[in-house]
Amino acid sequence: MVREALEGMGVPSHAVTVVDEVPVVLFASVRDRNRTFIESGFQIAFPVDIYGGWKTCTSGADVFHNGLYGFVTAGHCSQFEANGVNSSTAIYQNNFTSGDYIGYEYIDTPFFSCNGGANTCRYSDAMYVRYSPNNSSTFYAGKKIAETSPVGTTGSGGLNVARYRLSAGNSNMTIGLVVRKTGRTSGTTEGTVSATCVDKVPSAGKILLCQDVVDGWSRPGDSGAPVYWPDGFDFSNLNAKVYHAGILWGGDTINAKIFVSPWSGITTDLGVWY
User: Fold this and answer.
1) Which residue from 262, 143, 122 is spatially nearest to 193, judged by alpha carbons?
2) What's the CA gap between 3 and 14, in Å, rounded?
3) 9-55 pLDDT tens trace
């Protein structure tokens, strides 16, 4: 059809070469320094102590708080790895260097007394990071989630970004739903929701109420990763928008389980809106 159209325009066939091209693969990694926008699923870095130690987590979702731009990640992705303690931790992307500074821990709601005072509770392992005031809207990606290739089902996925999924909003998960997550360590992996609204104990005396469980693969550093599912329930439709279901904060690496704080809990704890 291309050759016929060119000949109809008077362009001789010997003057043109028509070649079939294979699909383009993007070679950006979720561990790269990502600018100008920082999509969900990319590596972030934070100090863990006062001696220069630092670790990595994953950006979870762009959110607003009182008109301010920022993002949600796991609450333990902060100084001393303490969920529920606001240390105004400086957050970087992708390495712990001054040139990669993007914002700071702004809201990390304390645990509250529960179970008759025997324990303390929250509804999420999540914190709100306010983007640096000088770049408050510059980093805002507009609810886009990075997806890598290949997608892992029984192990880690790739780390190179294959596409960006545009989110249509947030939504709860139901048992049996097939979802994906994108983390800086194990990339994009796929699994099935096996339980919803389950209380989890991340450490002695602390309870995270009403968390979701996915049969899927994750590794340390994936904390904060976006968990999502597609409109139409078909991931093969690359044009389908997705629904953001919450953020990954932990898991069972022996039995391949992912623990997710749903948006209902994140909003309750932090007062942010997706």
Assistant:
1) 262
2) 10
3) 999 988 988 887 766 555 689 999 988 899 999 999 999 988 889 99
With b for 16 or more beta-carbon neighbours within 10 A and e for fewer, the 161-172 pattern comes to bbbbbebeebbe
Q: Tokens 């320094």 label which residue?
A: 33
Same fold, 43-135 and 145-262: yes
Topology, domain 43-135 = Thrombin, subunit H (2.40.10)
Residue 165: which of 258, 237, 249 has the closest Cα?
A: 237
* H/E element, 188: strand 187-203
Contact partners, residue 4, CB within 8 Å, separation at least 6: none
Structure-block tokens of residue 19: 């070649």
Joined tokens for residue 48? 């863990």
Cα–Cα dist 190/267, whole Å? 25
- Structural domain boundaries in the chain: 43-135, 145-262
Give per-residue pLDDT as tens, 182-240.
999 999 999 999 999 999 999 999 999 999 999 999 999 999 999 999 999 999 999 99
| CATH architecture label of 145-262 | Beta Barrel (2.40)
Residues 90/100, Cβ–Cβ less than 8 Å:
no
> What letter would DSSP give residue 75?
T
